[in-house]
Amino acid sequence: MKLYYSPGACSLAPHIVASEAGVPLELEKVDLGSHTLADGSNYYDVNPRGYVPAIQIKAGEPVLTEANIVVQYIADQKPEAGLMPKAGTPERYRAQQWLAFVATELHKNFSWLWYKDTPAETKTAVKAKLDKRFAELDAHLKGNAYLLGKDFSAADAYAFTIVNWVNFLGMNLNSFPNLKAYMDRVAARPKVQAALKAEGLVAA
Ligand SMILES: N[C@@H](CCC(=O)N[C@@H](CS)C(=O)NCC(=O)O)C(=O)O
Q1: Ligand 1 atom 11 nearest Cα
Q2: pLDDT truncated to tens, each residue of the chain (204 aa)?
Q3: Residue 204 has what pLDDT?
Q4: What would you measure as the largest C-alpha separation in the chain, in angstroms?
Q5: 2-81+192-198: CATH superfamily
Q6: What keywords appear on the UniProt entry (predicted)?
Q7: Does domain 90-189 have CATH number 3.30.1020.10?
Q8: Is 84 in the pocket of ligand 1 (CB under 6 A)?
Q9: Would 2-81+192-198 and 90-189 be classified into the same CATH topology?
């Protein structure tokens, strides 16, 4: 399976899930500035939406996109790794609830902070919204090591990837000690380190 990624982008989430689950991935880097691949070819020909992550499951078929879905597909390739609860169970929906929360409340809000043309007042409003969500996460993580409780899941891979953007956007988690400790806990996992190293985000 091939993952189209850009270092530190939301594609890090499926990369972490594959690393944790032991699912082999072929990594193909996308230049998101020019939307080209290393050989100069046009990424829009691979994914007409132009964004990462995308996975090529079978040659000749359309790529699978949307980070919160891609992480589930990869986790389901190795159910014994326990990164997503079994389909149809209440636990699965709980995990999907967190994935949707990360996608719509964190990821989409953060996206506004990356665009250079976003007006300053919009950025201020977005940061206030993110602070509310961080406060909720902080309260939840007071009594839970991970989003689903005691065990790491695909939802953590996605939440970690997105919240990690505070480090690139001049923000910090100083008001959210439980969330900060959670980020350190996830970052310390050897398979997360392996994915970070593979993307060149920490020294190899
Ligand atoms: N709806 C997509 C959005 C993915 C997304 O925002 N990807 C960003 C990187 S984190 C990207 O590739 N941006 C470049 C572009 O849209 O051209 C998802 O949830 O996976």
Answers
A1: 51
A2: 999 999 999 999 999 999 999 999 999 999 999 999 999 999 999 999 999 999 999 999 999 999 999 999 999 999 999 999 999 999 999 999 999 999 999 999 999 999 999 999 999 999 999 999 999 999 999 999 999 999 999 999 999 999 999 999 999 999 999 999 999 999 999 999 999 999 999 998
A3: 83
A4: 48
A5: Glutaredoxin (3.40.30.10)
A6: Transferase
A7: no
A8: no
A9: no
Among 52, 74, 101, the mutation site with the greatest number of ligand 1 atoms within 8 A of its Cβ is 52
Q: Whose CA is nearest to atom 6 of ligand 1?
A: 51
Rounded Cα distance between 31 and 4, Å, is 10
Q: Is the CB of 111 under 6 A from ligand 1?
A: yes
The CB of 164 under 6 Å from ligand 1? The reply is no
The domain spans of the chain are 2-81+192-198, 90-189
Separation of 65 CA from ligand 1 center, angstroms?
Answer: 9
